[in-house]
Amino acid sequence: MDFPKEEFLAPGHRGCAGCGAALVVRLALKQSGKNTVVIAATGCLEVMTTPYPETAWEVPFIHVAFENAGAVASGVERALKAQGKEDVNVIAFGGDGGSVDIGLQSISGAMERGHNLTYICYDNEAYMNTGIQRSGATPWGASTTTSPSGSVSYGEDKPKKNMPMIMAAHGIPYIATASISYPEDFMQKVKKATETKGPAYIHINQPCTTGWGFEPAKTIEIGRLGVETGFWPLYEIENGEFRVTYRPTERKPVVEYLKSQKRFKHLGEDEVEKIQEYVDNQCEELGI
Amino acid sequence: MTKKVMTATAAISNAVRLAKPDVIPVYPITPMTKVAEYIADYVANGELDTEYIRVESEHSAMSAAIGASSTGVRTYTATSSQGLMYMHEVLFAAAGMRAPIVMGDANRSISSPLCIMNDQQDSITQRDAGWMQFYAKDGQEALDLTLTSFKVAENENVLLPAMVCIDGFIITHTNEIVDVPEQEDVDRFLPPYVPKYSYLDPEKPVTVGSMTDSKYYMDARYGVEVAMNKSVKVIEDAFKEFKDIFGREHDLIETYKCEDADIIFIGLGSVCSTVKVLVDEMREKGEKVGMLRVVSYRPFPSEKINEAVKNASKLAVIEKDISFGMGGALYQDLKTTVEGKEIIDFVIGLGGRDITPSTIYEVLERTKNPSKIINWIGIEEDD
């Protein structure tokens, strides 16, 4: 696969060392190219890339608020259409909080209306910008600052909200999951998403060094472990047709993924077993 | 020019059709729903070429409007009451991002209790958002102010969003004779919007809606203040041009028999039409009264108001909003800007409570013999 040299997210932004969100954007924009307008929800990405008067964006960029990236993107897409610039790629980025929780209505509206845009949720499984509070995308058992582990708590007590399948229920032409540790797979999906006439949704796993608790050099390794253990499945749904895009030859035990991160360090054997069971069921259901 | 009998929502919709916005995201709400429907009809019948977005909420209507306006196109939406409240957060964003969106608001009361009838609490509560706010007294004025709003909002010295408010049901659902301008005249008054400053274009990438720290935030907010102040002249110029092309005269305030009046009633919107009739009746009975209607609430025409009330001794503010314990917003604004007058506040007509001649006579009596500064008219007050 061709990896264009050109960068559309300039270096020198304020992301943490080892930030996975910056990788999401770099890879996505390498694929979509110069002819792109970006919309972002409030969150780590927007804060670290647009501290006035600096900007890391080499493509047009707009941010308005936390919960409305889907709606802002809808307005941008229609305005471009009115200007006869229908060939411009419209890509919205939102974190899990801005997408799965507070921004869900706005995304749902955008998807249901059939706008020609791609929404990419960079999922780091908690509100990282405000200091690691749980979101609807936080997995069961993860310790966050609002679902902390303690003497009578194993951390988050609800399973992760299944956002890609919520998007699938909208009947949109393209949905995919992705991981920053599988750049070719991700970029292929961005290509399909931006070439899709109509709405497309990509839900990408983005390991967060600060929120998950691992060494900055391990971002890619942790993302890979997520996929190799089956914790984070890679699939796409193209015009209603479901397809697994990467199948580990032999699934690693989920404990390898869990023990690599501080947020799961407190879990005992029983909890690990429960998560393994959850992952096994998920993989069976998806055919991984 | 064609004279037709129509409701104010139809008049506003005609203004929108003639202004030809490129993008109109809208969500229906009583009593403004008809605007969404009329525009839908225009689109369905090929009378208006626009991107009509049937959004899933008012918050998304305003968000999509900001996205569209920031892409450099003319943008319109309409709402009321709870819808406007739901937009609250992004109204501030629209002004701060200097998006010249025009919006119609049918003034309706705010829940709780839930009530769909008229007062002006909804838009008054948004007065600090950085939007220009105009209050029309009837459908004709709403049409004229909608057209003018586009011209002013899009002016490079202003670049602020504008809200045209009309009293829900009292005006939105009233039939009246309206002069609908010809398209060629409107095109002369309001040429296509060409954004002068940055907008979203892959050929010239810019970042809009940045975050900032204390070093720049206040400067950006001051920019809105400067634009609001500059808008006064731009509005006056636009009204002059409007008169030249369409023949109808408008101003930031309307005055009636203020020159020799001792007591001047001051208000916003349609209630002033009632007051105007009563001014004549009261004068026949020997009362030296006048009426001042604030058409442009933001920018607030302080100089014009001071000039108009200079010969009066008392101002009776009649308004359909309340900042609990502190009187209405217009009262507070007048206290800030008008010196040397006795100013008495009257809260009336909340939730559509009838404002009859006897209501205004009671205001007159209480102004002549005041017992307190903030008065609720039409209910039995606790002492």
Explained architecture:
The complex is a heterodimer of chains A (288) and B (383). Chain A is an alpha/beta fold and 288 residues long. Chain A has 11 helices and 10 strands. In chain A, strand 9 and strand 10 (241-246) form a beta hairpin. With 383 residues, chain B is α/β, with parallel strands linked by helices. In chain B, strand 6 (132-135), helix 6 (139-153) and strand 7 (162-167) form a beta-alpha-beta unit. Chain B is globular. Chain A binds chain B through residues 34-37, 39, 46-47, 50-53, 55, 57-65, 67-68, 70-76, 78-83, 85, 88, 105-106, 108-109, 112-113, and chain B through 22-23, 25, 50-51, 53-57, 59-61, 63-73, 75, 89-90, 93, 97, 200-202, 204-213, 216.
Order of helices and strands of chain A: HEHEHEHHEEEHEHEHHEEHH
Broad structural category of chain A? alpha/beta
The overall strand count of chain A is 10
Q: Helical region count of chain A?
A: 11
Helix coverage percent of chain B:
25-40%
Greatest contact pair? A-B, 44 and 43 residues
- Record the strand order, biggest sheet of chain B: 10-12-11-14-15-16
- Biggest sheet architecture of chain A: 8 strands, mixed
Give the fraction of residues assigned to helices of chain A.
25-40%
- Briefly, what CATH class of chain A? Alpha Beta
Please provide the ordered H/E string of secondary-structure elements of chain B.
Answer: EHEHEHEHEHEHEEHEHEEHEEHEHEHE
How large, in whole angstroms, is the Cα Rg of chain A?
Answer: 18 Å
Question: Unreliable segments of chain B (pLDDT under 50, ≥5 consecutive)?
Answer: none
